[in-house]
């Protein structure tokens, strides 16, 4: 594949399988055969869907334009896809950037956040009470693919250091 | 136990004053210029009264206090970096004499942990240092009770001055300089608050914890440290819009120490207010333990010192 690696996104599909030997393998083949890279499989044995099937959650990554092909191939193979998408399964990440945000070209900073990380900038709020050239703060809400938060934060720290900005990272422990 | 208290700042003074209540006896008390020694039990109130009048607790040398007939030395002189002197020398002398040592001074445990443990290994004395991490909060003993091998990480808000400033900045929308001046007026911040606001004090506490977890090897030079002085009020205001706030958070693991301002949920466990501290201990079998309380203050920190004294084995 020659696709740009940075353009690979993480997706989650929820499937329901009949409790028979070989069903799981049959469901995973169309993903692999269509360029999806399997990240994790959560096989909820012991949990049944209303139709008496076993729910399976599959995390995979692939370029966005291939995702539809993967889902179509699953359906073609007779696998029941109950949910497919990226949004719900992306991890939200909120960080603060502090410093001369305007003088260091905020627009370029945001472009580089997207270029240097696998995350997307979902929302930005800027507070620059001292005007251009003064110390400003920006709150960035990012959507990061599962399991990429650590890498994303490291890349953000490098970017902030290169621009002489201060990065305030979250402590992501409250949910545990 | 018979105690020699070296250092008569707020902590040393409170230890000396509370010792009797805890069933101990003070036989020596020293400050930076002199010492009072009485093998039959020192009149602490009289010595502190003398300090009020003359500036020193007594006419004797600090050396005389170090040679007094005590069971445990309480080292409560100000924390110094690098060689951690003169505190380290006081501790070394007590261990040479096979006496126990209880530290409130962070320097020797943060900067010279391995040296300290080596001296302890050659001594019949035991070293304890509960008071060096988060004042009254029993952080060290909780880690020791769980077993350092079964603690994966410790994080927390470990500096009350920095926390007071961040809390006030967020609540009132005030600028850093304004709140710092207020904190100095209230006595919450010292005239030179740099250790507190640049993260050094919190980092020393985390280094001590990292030494506990890893069995030594860390000093302040190994810590990644950032402070709060360059945080504008606008950063806190933006954080509040998202239901978050900023705290100076320290983290210690076997792999290292990191201190810096971090985003935390506004009403989350880590977002303690005012001068409070919180220590979160991640344990293998016990889950997460969160202990909050007074991280500084004379009587508060003295309770940690005296708890350590109570944990010491009897001296044979």
Structure description:
The complex is a heterodimer of chains A (176) and B (316). With 176 residues, chain A is of the alpha+beta class. Chain A contains 4 helices and 8 strands; from the N terminus they run E-H-E-E-H-E-E-H-E-E-H-E. Chain A has helices at 23-33, 64-76, 106-116, 149-162; strands at 9-17, 37-43, 54-62, 80-85, 91-99, 120-127, 136-144, 166-168. In chain A, strands 2-3-1-4 form a 4-stranded antiparallel beta sheet. Chain A has a 4-stranded antiparallel beta sheet with strand order 6-7-5-8, with helices on one face. Chain B is of the alpha/beta class. Chain B has 13 helices and 12 strands. In chain B, strands 3-2-1-4-5-6 form a 6-stranded mixed beta sheet, with helices on both faces. In chain B, helix 1 (10-18) links the parallel strand 1 and strand 2 (25-30). Chain B starts with a strand and ends in a 5-residue tail after the last helix. The chains are: A alpha+beta (176), B alpha/beta (316).
Protein topology:
The complex is a heterodimer of chains A (176) and B (316).
Chain A: E1 9-17, H1 23-33, E2 37-43, E3 54-62, H2 64-76, E4 80-85, E5 91-99, H3 106-116, E6 120-127, E7 136-144, H4 149-162, E8 166-168
Antiparallel strand pairs in A: 1-3, 1-4, 2-3, 5-7, 5-8, 6-7
Helix pairs in contact in A: 1-2, 3-4
Chain B: E1 2-6, H1 10-18, E2 25-30, E3 35-37, H2 44-54, H3 62-66, E4 72-75, H4 87-96, E5 100-103, H5 107-111, H6 113-121, E6 127-128, H7 139-146, E7 151-157, H8 160-172, H9 176-186, H10 194-197, H11 200-214, E8 223-225, H12 233-241, E9 244-253, E10 256-265, E11 276-283, E12 287-294, H13 298-311
Parallel strand pairs in B: 1-2, 1-4, 4-5, 5-6, 8-10
Antiparallel strand pairs in B: 2-3, 7-9, 7-11, 9-10, 11-12
């Amino acid at each position: 594949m020659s696709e740009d690696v940075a353009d690979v996104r993480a997706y989650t599909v929820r499937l329901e399988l009949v409790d028979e030997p070989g069903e799981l393998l049959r469901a995973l083949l169309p993903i692999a055969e269509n360029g999806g890279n399997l990240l994790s499989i959560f096989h909820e044995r012991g949990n049944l869907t209303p139709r008496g099937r076993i729910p399976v959650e599959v995390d995979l990554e692939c370029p966005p334009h291939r995702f539809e092909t993967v889902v179509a191939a699953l359906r073609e193979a007779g696998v029941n896809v109950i949910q497919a998408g990226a949004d719900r399964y992306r991890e939200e990440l909120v960080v603060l950037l502090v410093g001369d945000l305007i003088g260091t070209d905020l627009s370029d900073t945001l472009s580089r956040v997207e270029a240097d990380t696998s995350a997307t900038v979902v929302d930005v709020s800027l507070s620059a009470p001292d005007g251009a050239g003064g110390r400003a703060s920006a709150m960035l809400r990012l959507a990061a693919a599962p399991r990429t938060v650590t890498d994303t934060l490291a890349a953000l720290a490098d970017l902030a250091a290169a621009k002489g900005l201060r990065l305030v990272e979250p402590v992501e422990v409250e949910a545990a | 136990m018979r105690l020699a208290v070296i250092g008569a700042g707020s902590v040393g003074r409170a230890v000396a004053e509370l010792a009797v209540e805890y069933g101990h006896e003070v036989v020596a008390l020293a400050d930076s210029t002199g010492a009072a020694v009485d093998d039959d039990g020192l009149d602490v109130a009289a010595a502190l009264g003398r300090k009020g009048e003359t500036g020193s607790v007594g006419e004797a040398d600090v050396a005389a206090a170090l040679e007094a007939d005590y069971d445990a030395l309480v080292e409560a002189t100000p924390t110094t970096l690098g060689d951690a002197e003169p505190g380290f020398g006081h501790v070394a002398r007590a261990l040479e004499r096979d006496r126990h040592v209880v530290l409130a001074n962070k320097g020797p445990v943060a900067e010279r942990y391995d040296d300290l443990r080596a001296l302890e290994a050659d001594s019949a004395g035991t070293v304890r240092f509960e008071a060096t991490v988060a004042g009254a909060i029993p952080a060290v003993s909780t880690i020791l009770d769980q077993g350092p091998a079964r603690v994966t990480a410790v994080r927390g808000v470990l500096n009350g001055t920095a926390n007071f400033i961040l809390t006030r900045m967020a609540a009132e929308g005030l600028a850093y300089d304004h709140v710092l001046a207020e904190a100095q007026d209230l006595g919450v911040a010292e005239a030179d608050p740099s250790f507190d606001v640049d993260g050094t004090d919190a980092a020393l506490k985390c280094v001590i914890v990292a030494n506990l977890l890893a069995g030594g090897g860390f000093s302040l030079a190994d810590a990644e440290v950032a402070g709060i002085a360059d945080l504008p009020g606008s950063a806190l205001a933006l954080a509040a819009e998202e239901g978050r706030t900023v705290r100076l958070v320290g983290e210690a693991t076997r792999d290292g120490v990191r201190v810096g301002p971090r985003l935390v949920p506004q009403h989350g466990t880590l977002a303690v207010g005012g001068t409070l501290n919180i220590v979160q201990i991640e344990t293998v079998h016990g889950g997460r333990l969160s202990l909050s309380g007074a991280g500084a203050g004379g009587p508060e920190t003295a309770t940690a010192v005296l708890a350590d004294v109570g944990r010491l084995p009897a001296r044979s």
